Amino acid sequence: MKRNIGRIIATAAIGLTLSLGGCKCGNMYSQEDEIKMGQQFYKEYAADRKNHFLTSGPQYDRLQRVAAKILPQAQRDWNVPYKVSLVDSKEINAFAVPGGPIYFYKGLMDLASSDDEVAAVLGHEASHIVRRHSAKQMSDQMGKSVVAQILLGASGASRDQEQLAGLLIGIESLRYSRNDESEADEYGFKYLVGAGYNPDAMATFFEKMGKAAGNGGGPEFLRSHPVTSKRVEASRARAEAYKKGTYIAP
After folding, report:
1. Which residues of 240-250 are buried (b: 16+ CB within 10 A; e: fewer)?
2. pTM of the model
3. Which of 77, 110, 168, 238 is the most buried (most CB within 10 A)?
4. How far is residue 141's CA from residue 26's CA, in Å, rounded to a whole number?
5. What whole-number distance in Å separates Cα of residue 205 and Cα of residue 121?
6. How far apart are CA 54 and CA 90, in angstroms?
7. Largest Cα–Cα distance in the chain?
8. Rg (CA), the chain
């Protein structure tokens, strides 16, 4: 995801009516809030001259063909206006924001060798929207930041203590994100096989992503995504269970 995405989402959230009275699961945003947030983000993202959308060509047609099968399933679980856009960038990336918008980069489409692998990624990204991961993380981060500021302000904390508190908040957020990624894999697989695509596609694409991005990095607890090998193992296990008829959808 681009570095400025978090900033744009935060900007888009300002001015939205928050449904604090009905807050559940740590999410202070209503369905309507998330839809507005997604629409505003789309406008901001499209207005940035660095972001160029492709609206024709074989990769665009391929993405929309897959979306026509995957997104209706997500719609049944969480009714928001899904829309998938293709960004003209060689970067291997895809991301989703609250309320329906999903963005695929051309580099990822080039890496995917089949509709099945595109469907695996699209199902995963749609699942982030269905499970409301971004909105929950934003709500969680907002609450922790406010509490930290109040406590540190009242105790006259030093700058070092403030930075330490910020680091702790960030680590907690990363740990929460790892859970989100695993859940998105689970739901994404449900959409993948529900649309009739190859159940092995998620594992094969994760293997490609691992080779493309490299498997190095820091300790696992500091990573925002599960280790590639573990995701591949889990994806293979789901595929085998599906073939044996023992798979149970989330």
Report:
1. eebeeeebeee
2. 0.77
3. 238
4. 10
5. 8
6. 13
7. 61
8. 19
Kindly state the helix (H) or strand (E) to which residue 95 belongs, with its residue range.
strand 94-96
From residue 110, how far is each of 27, 58, 62, 205, 242 by CA, in Å? 36, 11, 11, 12, 28
**More confident site: 47 or 235:** 235
Strand partners, 102: 84, 96
Instruction: Write the pLDDT tens digit of every residue in 90-110.
Output: 988 888 888 999 999 999 999
d(Cα 171, Cα 222) in Å, to the nearest integer? 7
Q: How many residues does the chain have?
A: 250
pLDDT digits (tens, 9 = 90+) for 1-48: 555 555 544 544 444 433 333 434 468 889 998 898 888 889 888 988
Answer whether 129's CB lies under 8 Å from 100's CB: yes
